[in-house]
Amino acid sequence: MSNAPQASARAKTFRPGFMARNRQVITPLLFLTPGILFFLFYVIFPVIQSFNLSFYKWDGLGEAEYVGLKNYKKLLTDRAFEVSLWNNFKWLILYLLAIPAGLFIALFLNQTVTGIRLYKSLFFFPFVISQVVVGLVFTWFYDPTFGLLNTILEQFGLEPLNVLGDPNLATYGIILAGLWPQTAYCMILYLTGLNAVDPEQIEAARLDGAKGWRMLWHIIIPQLRPATFIAFVVTIIGALRSFDLISIMTYGGPFGSTRVLSFYMFEKALSEYGFRMGYGAAIAVVLFVIMLAFIAYFLWSMYQDEKGAR
């Protein structure tokens, strides 16, 4: 009888603790906690702060004055905001061309032939260089006096073009410059996705007589949905926050014709035009809502497709 209490005490001593019992739950949370904290502090909190600041008139130094929806009402009659918004939609529509272009380049490079690594490196090169370098390269390319574009046009007997000096052409010229590295990024995503394509499905499709466009549309593209989703999200975000190329190539000109919302926000909130923090925050909120709407729509579409496939 005297040994019973000792056995019970030993059992309590060796009983696993809370951490040991919940190790599979706690360990991932411990790894995720730093990232979640950084995300909350550097993303979620600034977004909430921007929403709040958009209801104030503030120069960044003095006391903020609550003005309600006045900043948003001013946006409705602001011609520069209208031009910036319209340019953003141009960026959105034309920037999405990087996705099919990246896909077709990836299909071309996804083969085992002599020298294919060299071709992959050449197509990959635009992605690793800075946007500032891309902007400078295309500024020289478009230069009306010594640029390569006008040199080519002269060879065909055509008149020279001042692309960045023409309000009707400047935005399209900058978008073309942005498509160069963005296409390379989409190509990398699709090359990675093509490595995960099930070869058995391709072989089965070939036995059923599928080839060419039918093979691509019905067999390969459905297996590339994860890569397509990432490409859409990154391309939409890149199109809506297109700031650096505009700053390098035209600085919003000529006559403000190449402004987008992110650049106009910078002009109003931080540049020499005035330190209007509240007005700049209102522009940022509009930009955020547009971005959120596009991404939410695409997420919902993907969810519906996967739900229907089950």
List the helices and strands and how they pair.
Layout: H1 3-13, H2 18-21, H3 23-53, E1 56-57, E2 65-66, H4 70-76, H5 79-95, H6 98-109, H7 116-128, H8 131-142, H9 148-155, H10 170-195, H11 199-207, H12 213-223, H13 225-240, H14 244-249, H15 261-269, H16 277-309
Antiparallel strand pairs: 1-2
Core attributes:
two-stranded antiparallel sheet, 2 strands, 16 helices, 310 residues
Overall residue-averaged pLDDT value: 87
Shape: globular
- Overall number of domains: 2
Total number of helical segments?
A: 16
Largest beta sheet, briefly?
A: 2 strands, antiparallel
CATH topology of the largest domain: MetI-like fold
Distance between the termini: 62 Å
Which parts are unreliable, with pLDDT below 50 for 5 consecutive residues or more? none
Strand order of the largest sheet: 1-2
Order of helices and strands: HHHEEHHHHHHHHHHHHH
Helix content: over 70%
CATH class of the largest domain: Mainly Alpha
The fraction of residues in strands falls at: under 5%
Rounded to an integer, what's the Rg over CA atoms?
27 Å
**Number of DSSP strand runs:** 2
CATH superfamily of the largest domain: MetI-like
Question: Which CATH architecture of the largest domain is right?
Answer: Orthogonal Bundle
